[in-house]
Design goal:
The structure is a single chain. The protein has one domain (31-387): TolB, C-terminal domain (Neuraminidase), CATH 2.120.10. Helix content is 8%, strand content 34%. It contains two helices and 28 strands.
Length: 389
């Protein structure tokens, strides 16, 4: 036992030393810039287009990640740093949460939550947990793990779920590495499961789509039922390669990782002739290393007509780039369920002119009031962007 602990400790030390050495090497070559990640958090001076305004909806959270609107019209948040799910009611409609109400605690780094068929489903690094609120008081009395086999976490620990119109549950898990051959086919992929309603565990496991290095954001188009995902590309190929991507995912499609990136770029380590010939192509490309996470189609009615149906994406921000990029929310104009124009900035300012970041946007959600809510896991804030009357 002592020998095993000694070996484990040695491996941890060697891993830390190796990561430090790589960081120093990359810093010397000006391939990384950690200013945006390491600078102190603050309320960002967010800029939005004319006719919109911004306010702080909630503060005092710890690493808030994905959000969802419940059947009661209240915004719910995975407060990851506090291992809990919270509700943020705004009963008086002043654009600021009245309180932070605890819904479920004792969860392991919850990332994503979806309300489906009368129940909340939450993702943790190990898999999916269902919350039960039998007495209807707004607090979950029990947590039921529906699957807990997504270990070890590896490089990417977040899990994201979405439900297809046919009731199947989709679960995405990023790669365990920057670029490698995975042993578990569920990593760097999206896996589908039968409807979990009334079940004590997830069944019918099938690979829905593969070759997605880190598909953090999942959104099902309300009109078409089509799955859209954000995908974070590999690092260490320079400032501008490969572009980040958004895919309109087709079931059964391989999107290329680790041999092909962004549909056209053959990997220098794992690539081969013809690696990109049959892979799925992105619907949208974004500046490399921007780290797109949450995405949402605007389905409210409060924004001007030209924004109806458009796609909004939160860019968490770079580290593997000499000049920081991302740290903002962008808009993808849409028409008839497809991109209809180039990606454009919608909300900026989390990244300062000095290259430091006050915050890091994670998710975007359309509230019951038609405003766009943005979670910031660095500052612990939820921002509310609304159209001025």
């Amino acid at each position: 036992m002592r020998r095993k602990r000694w070996l484990t400790g040695l491996l941890v030390v060697l891993g830390i030393c190796g990561a430090t050495a790589v960081t120093i090497y990359l810093y010397a070559r000006q391939q990384i810039n950690l200013a945006g990640m390491l600078s102190e958090a603050a309320i960002a001076n967010v800029s939005v287009p004319e006719g919109f305004a911004v306010q702080i909806f909630a503060s005092g959270l710890s690493g808030p990640r994905f959000m969802a609107v419940g059947p009661d019209g209240v915004l719910y948040v995975a407060d990851r740093g506090n291992d809990r799910i919270v509700a943020l009611p705004d009963a008086d409609g002043d654009g600021q949460a009245d309180e932070i109400r605890m819904v479920a605690e004792g969860l392991n780094n919850p990332h994503n939550l979806v309300y489906h068929e009368g129940t909340w489903y939450v993702t943790v690094p190990e898999g999916v947990v269902r919350l039960t609120d039998a007495d209807g008081d707004g607090v979950a009395e029990s947590h039921t793990p529906l699957i807990d086999t997504y270990t070890p976490s590896g490089q990417h620990s977040s899990r994201t779920i979405a439900f297809l119109p046919d009731g199947r549950l989709l679960l995405s898990a990023g790669s365990t590495c920057n670029v490698c051959e995975e042993e578990d086919p569920r990593r760097a992929a999206i896996t589908s499961y039968d409807s979990p309603v009334g079940q004590d565990q997830l069944t019918g496991e099938q690979i829905y789509a593969s070759g997605l290095r880190n598909a953090v954001g999942l959104a099902v188009h309300t009109d078409t039922g089509q799955l859209w995902v954000t995908n974070n590309g590999r690092d260490l190929l320079g400032d501008d390669i490969p572009p980040e991507t958004i895919y309109q995912v087709e079931e059964g499609t391989d999107y290329g990782w680790p041999s092909c990136h962004s549909g056209t770029i053959v990997d220098p380590e794992f690539g081969f002739d013809g690696a990109c010939e049959s892979v799925g192509q992105p619907a949208v490309t974004i500046q490399a290393h921007s780290a797109p996470l949450g995405l949402a189609f605007y389905i409210g009615s409060a924004f001007p007509a030209e924004y109806q149906g458009d796609l909004f994406v939160a860019l968490h921000g770079s580290w593997n780039r000499s000049v920081p990029t991302g740290y903002k929310v962008v808009r993808v104009p849409m028409a008839n369920g497809a991109p209809a124009g180039p990606v454009e900035d919608f909300a900026t300012g989390w990244l300062n002119s000095d290259g430091n970041a006050d915050g890091r946007p994670v998710d975007v959600a359309v509230g019951s009031d038609g405003a766009l809510y943005v979670s910031d896991d660095k500052g612990g804030f939820i921002y509310r962007i609304y159209a001025q009357p």
